[in-house]
């Protein structure tokens, strides 16, 4: 069984899954249809309620 | 790895990289002039200006220069260390330079951004900042990351759907789990629930998960048990559990808080009597036992919730109310079912549709306002119809008060024991509302389910499985590795005054009675430097920010 993992979609959900899986020691292939990862969150300025910069 | 801690006779070879940050820096100060100046600084043997130092090209330049110029120190003058220090220092490490021999100078947030329009002065300040950074970097020491062992076992506190799901997922990953449940049976609040909105009976869904958890040999379940003591740190927690058969001592690597919440018993609210005026959980039990006998049912939402004493919205009661209103209407179509509400909270993929379906089945929804709450007396519900402006009276055989979930009264005690925070309502508080929703700020401790905030069974299960992923990301590693930027106390100089003890927010310092000195636990230390700033004998120091390093930096200013 090959243990590499394919994650489809590079928004916040896909990125967090990829990070956790990589931390566990798996090789992850993250595929995003757009030129950059980040998804909807990358388009936000601040996040509620902490006012952290979204990007 | 080449550690490059200098012998007294060896001069450092410093490389300086000046970042334009596109126009963020270069637009407001003269970067080529700053780079030229950097070449004149002591021990600087290489200087490069980059359009974006953090880009692949910029990182490539750093790596190339370390190898070709045999650099023993790297200084990047760009943005805040909060954004890119990890990237730069790990890039140094990739080509064999100890990552702690990297120094960052902030000429964006602390220079170009705050001195827009004063180009000459900003250029001068950038030069001075770089001069200080270079002076500090010359005195940097190679440090080794701190490693500690990991115990691949997890303590899950709470055997409701969240805790069960976490235990099940962790068990499936092959990790050892200890599940501690305070009551005599596993299942939590869901045991009292009749039917889920998916149509599945709650007990059936629950028993599948419980059976699976019970059948896994690497999961140990303790029921009628409580965690009485915890100590230690991530990877190495010591816990004591009071069980039916006596005290059990265990060592675990991570801990999961899945203690849930309890439904408010609405004593003194809207005529609650437990018979004709009941709470939403009592209705679940009536339905579970098929004992419902009413021709006219009125649900009152937000009973005891969103009030001055309990300001939060419990979120799940609207969905439970609508679910049960529909169940009653489906089973007894002639029953008159009405719902009095303030706002309907029906989020998620199917719940909004549920509300429309409920209206379609003939369930009547009327809005009331908090300044004119309904009154319940002698089988009658009187309420002010906000839309028509008229007061209406409804006959009711059964009034169901949709009450919120409230934190357990002993959750504060658990929070103190684990040293984790709670919010203003008494629910456990996660590390970051958006980015770390399942982590506590304390490393190695996690939260899931209604202990954090009222959650639907789906949400509690999702969070439980999510926590398993967060735990596995730690425990699947060979060992724990953390930053070497931690405090150290010189045992020869420490007089044991204990001034540093109360200053440490992480309780990483302890007093050694035998040696009469204070000692730092490097795994617990987060490198805040409070102890170093407090220590009257200068025996506490923060690695990477030692007095001689900081004095060199200040002296260059």
Automatic annotation (TrEMBL), chain A:
It comes from the Bacteria. Keywords: Iron, Iron-sulfur, Metal-binding, Oxidoreductase. Gene3D superfamilies: NAD(P)-binding Rossmann-like Domain. GO terms for molecular function: iron-sulfur cluster binding; metal ion binding; oxidoreductase activity. The keyword RNA-binding does not apply. The keyword Iron applies. InterPro entries: HdrA-like (IPR039650). SUPFAM superfamilies: Nucleotide-binding domain (SSF51971). This is FAD dependent oxidoreductase. The lineage of its organism: Bacteria, Pseudomonadati, Thermodesulfobacteriota, Desulfobacteria, Desulfobacterales.
């Amino acid at each position: 069984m090959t243990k590499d993992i394919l994650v489809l979609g590079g928004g916040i959900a896909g990125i967090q899954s990829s990070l956790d899986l990589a931390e566990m020691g798996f090789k992850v292939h993250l595929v995003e249809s757009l030129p950059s990862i980040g998804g909807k969150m990358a388009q936000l300025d601040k996040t509620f309620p902490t006012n952290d910069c979204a990007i | 790895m080449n550690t490059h801690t200098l012998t007294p006779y060896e001069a450092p070879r410093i490389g300086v990289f000046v970042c334009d940050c596109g126009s963020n820096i270069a637009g407001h100060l003269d970067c080529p002039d700053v780079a030229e100046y950097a070449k004149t600084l002591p021990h600087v043997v290489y200087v490069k200006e980059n359009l974006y130092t953090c880009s692949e090209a910029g990182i490539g330049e750093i790596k190339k220069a370390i190898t070709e110029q045999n650099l023993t120190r790297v200084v990047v003058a760009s943005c805040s260390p909060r954004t890119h220090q990890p990237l730069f220092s790990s890039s140094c490490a990739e080509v064999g330079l100890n990552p702690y021999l990297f120094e960052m100078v902030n000429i964006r947030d602390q220079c170009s951004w705050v001195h827009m329009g004063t180009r000459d002065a900003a250029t001068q300040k950038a030069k001075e900042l770089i001069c200080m950074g270079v002076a500090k970097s010359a005195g940097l020491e190679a440090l080794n990351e701190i490693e500690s062992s990991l115990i691949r076992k997890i303590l899950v506190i709470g055997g409701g759907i969240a805790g069960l799901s976490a235990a099940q997922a962790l068990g499936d990953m092959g990790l050892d789990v200890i599940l501690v449940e305070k009551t005599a049976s596993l299942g939590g609040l869901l045991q009292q629930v009749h039917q889920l909105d998916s149509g599945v009976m709650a007990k059936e869904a629950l028993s599948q998960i419980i059976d699976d958890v019970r059948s896994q040999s690497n999961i140990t379940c303790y029921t009628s048990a409580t965690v009485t003591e915890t100590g230690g740190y991530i990877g190495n927690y010591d816990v004591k559990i009071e069980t039916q058969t006596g005290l059990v001592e265990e060592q675990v690597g991570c801990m999961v808080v899945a203690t849930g919440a309890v439904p408010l018993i609405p004593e003194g609210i809207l005529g609650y009597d437990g018979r004709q005026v009941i709470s939403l959980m009592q209705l679940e039990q009536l339905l579970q036992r098929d004992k419902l006998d009413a021709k006219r049912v009125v649900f009152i939402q937000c009973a005891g919730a969103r009030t001055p004493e309990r300001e939060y919205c419990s979120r799940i009661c609207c969905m439970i109310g609508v679910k049960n209103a529909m169940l009653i209407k489906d089973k007894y179509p002639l029953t008159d079912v009405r719902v009095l509400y303030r706002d309907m909270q029906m989020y998620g993929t199917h719940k909004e549709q549920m509300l429309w379906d409920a209206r379609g089945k003939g369930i009547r929804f009327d809005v009331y306002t908090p300044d004119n709450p309904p009154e319940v007396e002698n089988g009658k519900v009187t309420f002010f119809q906000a839309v028509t402006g008229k007061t209406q009276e409804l006959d009711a055989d059964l009034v169901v008060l949709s009450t919120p979930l409230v934190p357990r009264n002993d959750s504060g005690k658990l929070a103190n024991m684990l040293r984790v925070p709670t919010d203003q309502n008494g629910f456990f508080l996660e590390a970051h509302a958006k980015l770390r929703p399942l982590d506590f700020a304390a490393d190695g401790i996690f939260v899931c389910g209604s202990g954090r905030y009222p959650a639907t069974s789906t949400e509690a299960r999702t969070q439980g499985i999510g926590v398993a992923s967060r735990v596995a990301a730690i425990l699947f590693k060979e060992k724990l590795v953390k930053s070497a930027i931690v405090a150290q106390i010189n045992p020869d100089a420490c007089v044991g005054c204990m001034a540093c003890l109360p200053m440490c927010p992480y309780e990483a310092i302890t007093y050694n009675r035998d040696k009469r000195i204070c000692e730092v636990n490097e795994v617990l230390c987060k490198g805040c430097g409070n102890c170093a700033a407090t220590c009257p004998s200068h025996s506490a120091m923060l690695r990477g920010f030692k007095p001689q390093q900081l004095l060199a930096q200040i002296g260059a200013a």
